[in-house]
């Protein structure tokens, strides 16, 4: 008999498993279709002995001391601040767009105040900012939009930015200073020995059992448990009763080169050339010393593993129908990216899971601990 059956061994499921096992002293079984733990954060050593991220680069950053301190129980850290360049017009420019980007592109010597005026002169005022195109052109104008955003977004989403919700472009900042870091969070670091090692430490508890290479539906009738935590695709849980929720996926092409360094920084975006969106070189992220280097090319596509919920109104309407079904489920908690059809950063999922654990503890201390299914914490 298990107290909890958790479907999915990524951040959402693993954090909840660890808290339930170590703090609440509950017996937990984690089931995952994949042959490994750590979800999309899974990393491994390739044939050359280089540490690579199987599902594309995962760079940890957070403003939450609680999240950082929690994960620090299971890993030491390597300080790392990610920097990105964009290849356009045969040159490399800093991204996010900042003072250096504009000065380099136009041969100017602007200061921060000048740049604010420059953006204002280029911006197209809009009364209603509805789409991703609207967000960018209303801030920096159409020329920079065409050079850095439009092509990249079309490749990434398979749609023109004019068709996409404004939330997509809202994730990409524009800066008035020379700060060329991709993130500005208080805590920016990489697990010193990799994400998989961190997850192994997290799940190394006598109350936790892990079953890999297994679809939970194939074993659910053979397992005794009191409560389910589901972190997989919500439409799959309900056998696609209302149809499939649309996702954008990625194909990863890994290459190892017989050289110390392949490119100038961790990631280079290719907004307008080639079928891939970006190339990431892992040694920048990991700090590994090696005479060879491994990189990954990312090719967006419509099919494959579900990575990015497609932010369109009709998709949200479809998800809300599944959410209504979740609320009818007893003793089942739906949490995480796939179960709530929302894109979260890693630290957001950890924070969500820590909050969910507190909610579960509260419910366990009440006379009636039956839980109606949906829980977006």
Automatic annotation (TrEMBL):
Gene3D superfamilies: NAD(P)-binding Rossmann-like Domain
Pfam families: GLF (PF03275), NAD_binding_8 (PF13450)
Taxonomy, superkingdom: Bacteria
Record keywords, A-Z: FAD, Flavoprotein, Isomerase
Record flagged with keyword Transport: no
This enzyme's EC code(s): 5.4.99.9
Molecular function per GO: flavin adenine dinucleotide binding; UDP-galactopyranose mutase activity
Keyword Cell cycle (UniProt): no
Enzymatic class: isomerase
Family membership noted in the UniProt record: Belongs to the UDP-galactopyranose/dTDP-fucopyranose mutase family.
Name the UniProt record assigns to this protein: UDP-galactopyranose mutase
Organism name: Hufsiella arboris
């Amino acid at each position: 008999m298990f107290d909890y059956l958790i479907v999915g061994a990524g951040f959402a499921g693993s954090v909840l498993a660890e808290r339930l096992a170590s703090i609440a002293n509950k017996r937990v079984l984690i089931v995952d279709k994949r042959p490994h733990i750590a979800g999309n954060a899974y990393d491994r050593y390739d044939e050359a002995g280089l540490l690579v991220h199987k599902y594309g680069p995962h760079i940890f950053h957070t403003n939450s001391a609680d999240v950082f301190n929690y994960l620090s129980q299971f890993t030491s850290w390597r300080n790392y601040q990610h920097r990105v360049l964009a290849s356009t017009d045969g040159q490399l420019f800093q991204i996010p767009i900042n003072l250096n980007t504009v000065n380099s592109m136009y041969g100017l010597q602007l200061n921060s105040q000048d740049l604010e005026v420059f953006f204002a002169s280029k911006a197209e005022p809009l009364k209603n900012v509805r789409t991703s195109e609207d967000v960018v052109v209303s801030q920096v104008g159409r020329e920079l939009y065409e050079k850095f955003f439009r092509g990249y977004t079309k490749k990434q989403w398979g749609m023109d930015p004019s068709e996409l919700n404004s939330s997509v472009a809202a994730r990409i900042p524009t800066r008035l200073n020379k700060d060329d870091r991709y993130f500005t969070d208080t805590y920016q670091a990489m697990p010193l020995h990799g994400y998989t090692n961190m997850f192994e430490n997290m799940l190394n508890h006598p109350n936790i059992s892990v079953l890999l290479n297994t679809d939970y539906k194939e074993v659910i009738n053979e397992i005794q448990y009191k409560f389910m935590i589901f972190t997989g695709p919500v439409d799959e849980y309900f056998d696609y009763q209302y149809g499939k929720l649309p996702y954008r996926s990625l194909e990863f092409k890994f290459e190892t080169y017989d050289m110390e360094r392949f490119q100038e920084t961790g990631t280079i975006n290719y907004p307008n050339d080639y079928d891939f969106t970006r190339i990431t070189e892992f040694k920048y992220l990991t700090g590994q010393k090696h005479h060879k280097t491994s990189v990954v090319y990312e090719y967006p596509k419509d099919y494959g593993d579900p990575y990015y919920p497609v932010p369109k109104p009709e998709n949200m309407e479809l998800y809300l129908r599944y959410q209504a079904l979740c609320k009818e489920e007893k003793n089942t908690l739906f949490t995480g990216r796939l179960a709530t059809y929302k894109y979260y950063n890693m630290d957001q999922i950890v924070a969500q899971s820590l909050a969910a654990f507190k909610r579960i503890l509260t419910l366990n201390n009440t006379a009636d601990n039956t839980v109606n299914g949906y829980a977006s914490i």
